[in-house]
Amino acid sequence: MIFRTIINKNSIITLIKNSKTLPQLNQIHAQIILNNFSNHLITSTKLTHKLFDFQATNQAKNLFKSLTKTNPPDLFLYNVLIRGLSQNGCPLDSLLAYLELRERTLLEPDNFTYLFVVSAVSALGCEKVGVLIHGHALISGYAKDCYAGSGLVDMYVNLGKIEDAYKVFDGIAEPDTVAWNTMISSLVKISFFHECCVVFRDMVRKGGRFDSTTVAVVLSAVAGLKDLRKGVMIQCVGIKVGCDLHDYVLTGLVNVYSKCGDILSAELLFGLIKKPDLVSCNAMIAGFSLSGDIKSAIRLFKELVCSRGRVNASTVVGLIPVSCPFRHLDLLRSIHCFCLKSGMLLDPSISTALISVYCRLNEIELGKRLFDESPEKGVAAWNAMISGYAQNGLTEPAISLFKEMQRLDIHPNSVTVTSILSACAQLGALSLGKWVHDLIKKGSFDWNIYVSTALIDMYAKCGNIAEARELFNTMEEKNVVTWNAMISAYGLHGLGHEALTLFEEMLNSKVTPSGVTLLSILYACSHSGLVEEGQKLYYFMVNDHGFTPSAEHYACMVDLLGRAGQLKKAVEFLNSMPVSPGTAEWGALLGACMIHKNTDLARLASDKLFELDPGSVGHYVLLSNIYSVDRNYSQAASVRQTVKKQNLAKTPGCTLIEVDGQPHVFTSSDQSHPNAAAIYDKLEEIMGKMKDVGFQIETTTALHDVEDEEKELMVTVHSEKLAIAYGLITSEPGTEIRIIKNLRVCLDCHNFTKFVSKITERVITVRDANRFHHFTDGVCSCKDYW
DNA sequence: CTAGGGTTAG
Fold it and tell me: Which residues form the PPR repeats (predicted)?
């Protein structure tokens, strides 16, 4: 055997270093014992180190124990032990070894000791121990050291103590590249992309020497932010200081350009990569798929399979056509099939991605089945399912899934609560929303911009605009979405001037308005009668800022003009459009015609609508109502006949009211409520008072049934009247009544509510399909303009 | 260096 020639310790150490397998190492170990080298400390240290490398943890431990008796281990060996135990899934043993070192020996821990033991504390997740060891490091003067300091930074980030991590980092005397990189990559690990870029900027300013690893990590943060400008800047900074275009850096750049939609640059950079590996190919595949170039994505995927024989989960997830899934159902099916056969479907990242894409395709059932069949469900899978429900308007299943999560003791995170808050907002579930808010206040989840924005939206949509604004004011970081949410909140409540003021503030801040901003502002103007202001802003955005309007923007402009009664101008606007108007634009005109009872224009608009979209119910209902206004009942009936023939049912109206945190839902003429008798009594009482003071019953623009309307109004009681009556009997006098309905409020109910607010001296808040109505003392905040 | 989940408008 080769060991015959062993003569000295140095050659044994070389053999240990070069050993490739555990059996090989064991043979060497045997030779060490045979040659009486067991007492040689350096040999034993190298052997322990190598045993840990081969994950032979128990052997390493035993070797260490056997050494103690003969000759005591030095600090170096202790460090090897602490590191090895920590890295091989024994963080507690690692910590115990550290304590043994401190208490049973005369040895003093050095910077390496702290670096290693601190990583064990990270794995244990025990903050108290972490602080204790930080204290030890401070006393011994190692907290300012790059090695120990980097370990502490990483530890605090893993413990979720970002501020402490920053403090430790700021205390490091002269951070080296590794220390900077640790700070930067720790922030990336927890998705603090913006903060990561800030640290990198500081590093450049302070003249810190960065390497290709730094640049690659910062680029991954930039990709997370989808900020192309930053990506280009970092590229320039890198080139300026001569950081070579290492393959990792190029891969990072491919990723940034892909995420930002510049697929041509991504492809170009991909071509510069010297040896494309799995990672860089994955980045490129994801880029192709995201840009809609499915053909290229598949081509590269096939190349990868041919040349390497296998791919990983990242490859598959990247290939899933998330940008336009409805156009690539075949591919989706193939991927699903491929994963099923290869067993990759068991990978949580793949199943989660599939659940998400199915939900986006409205294939909730399919998503749910995949969800149920996933054996290893992470929080992400739950989040995908919950948001799938919430985004499709299925608020109840979203909330019940959230409750099931808690029953199963699966901890929701900030992503979960963001979706739940969105569901609360849609549903008007103020109590649940407040409950979630309390949980957040208690510190159960991270506060971030998504959560705050969702909270603002929730409060606004549940009627509490003041709380929404309060939250908005206290946010230190705001993005476009935050501003949009607040602007549209004002629009929703008919507070057009406040919306305009906020928009001014937004322009003064550094946030660039988006298409949604303009929509929100136009919507707010339209619902407050601010025609001039809305028009001015529209042309300001389009002419001065080169903004390209979409169909929704055109529709909003038609609505703005039309709602204010300027129908002629609305038609002129339609004719002046650079593209031909679609259903959104004509629909807006039809709606305006209905408000202002212009039958001729209504007919024109509805003809266009039927031409463009024969299947839609809403248009039929509107048209039918138009004829009713004209007292042309036979025409109205014939339109409704068409609706019935095509089996196009209209949405039944319903209203929700919360009493003591419990939701109560009423439908038209609902008798099913346990307190029905009392409710109808109350209603009769109010109706009687209304008649006494001569309130007219108005039916002409009722959006509900138009057939036999006289007869129907006798027997039909709209759901919101029932909800208000119930609110009156269940709440204390003087308190606010808050109801939510799924359709637009009708004129009759609007009058009814005004009257109730006057005689009962109550504030009544009604959220209808479009907006809020705040009734006080017989007047509505919408000024009868809705 | 690559992969899964989130907020606004309609």
Answer: 176-210, 277-311, 378-412, 448-478, 479-513
